[in-house]
Amino acid sequence: MSENPSPGAAETVPSFYERPSVHQEALPVSGVPFGFESVSNPALGIGGVYGAWGESYDNLRLKELLEQRLGQPLDAREEMNLAELGFLHRHHVQGLSPEEHLEVEVEVGARLLREAALANGWQPDEVQAVLIGMSGPVSPDYVERIAARAGIPTEALKVSVHKACDGSVGSLHLALNPGLASAHEPNIAEELRGKKTLVGGIEGLSRFIQQARDKNALQLFGNGAGIIGLIPGQTMRFLTGAKREAYDEEGVLAVRMYYPHSRQSLLEVTQSGQSVRVAGLMHEPPDDAPIDMAGPMGMVKLFVRTGVEVVAEVYQAYRRLMEKLGTPERSLAAGIVHHANYKINQLKEKHLKNLGIQFPMPWLLSDFGNVSAASNMIAFLRQLPTLKPGDHVLFDGFGAGTYYDVLAVSMG
Questions:
Q1: Cβ distance 271 to 181 under 8 Å?
Q2: Which residues contact 71 (CB under 8 A, 6 or more apart)?
Q3: Where are the domains of the chain?
Q4: pTM surpassing 0.90?
Q5: What architecture (CATH level 2) is domain 9-411?
Q6: pLDDT tens readout for residues 354-395
Q7: Tally of CA atoms within 13 A in the half-sphere of 284 that contains its CB
Q8: Rg for the chain (alpha carbons), in Å?
Q9: How many CB atoms sit inside 10 A of residue 327's CB?
Q10: Contact 200, 175 (CB under 8 A)
């Protein structure tokens, strides 16, 4: 893995806002800091934007923020070695009312949709579909709100995907793989083929965990967003993929559902006009807490074994496809893996190597923290300038619930 973080790396890795290509400003609501970076690869015809809002906290200042939120000192035994887990900075917003959070996140989402369209050479009114993954949306109609404010046409398809950290890869999978649709469900990939599409994850996790008492969650998560533009079947083509749902019976990572769900089935797909919602059932905390999670080892046990199985399944299907196409020597240029934490990704890499599976899995988000559904898209955008037409990329998403989406795609 590249950008291997170390406990002393905090002094050498700047905050996101300090990157020279980041556009930074203060939002009208309470002067909340907001920054974004646009990325494009003209050879591939793919571009996008990623960013954050709120004040940037390094690991030392984050401890002070946590103690302020908890109203008590953080015990040394409860303090995580965040640098070792790959996280050196986090973005948080303090002291906003629910109405102010809504306005901030709608404005952020709208700005990012507009900038993502422009990064692809499109005007917002040319966008034909928007698919956004969100763990805890600030409002049930969030995607509709940001699309309208961004100037995206009313008739554009709008898809909200609530599969926790797997939300953005789940969205990309829906946009590219026509084999995902079940009977009586919209076949999103067939509908989007050849259309200008924005896919991403937008996570206001500072708001989401504001009332949490879980000290692990308070240290790991922060705000972040990443949105890419693609034309399914043209600038990005589906090769092979798989998804897996396995309900978290024990509640190792219990998450409150702040979105509509009947609680009668695991994964629900509902449609109203041009709006589609894909909602995953979560094991919710026993009280009103937004999140309750086991320690890092609990996360390893929850995600690594099944996660490795799904990646191995897709990788073997990819190898068979390359054999069938007469290009057995082809290999994956990169694996874009959800940045849950560095140790989880290291362990997945180790288990895959034991199975004879090896491809680059760069670590790219040390200045963000765990930003849930946003992480895969931010990581992809940071890798995008190095990719060439015809490169094959594997996306590996996994999240609470538990939900897994893994797919291999061809670029350009």
A1: no
A2: none
A3: 9-411
A4: yes
A5: 3-Layer(aba) Sandwich (3.40)
A6: 999 999 999 999 999 999 999 999 999 999 999 999 999 999
A7: 14
A8: 20
A9: 11
A10: no
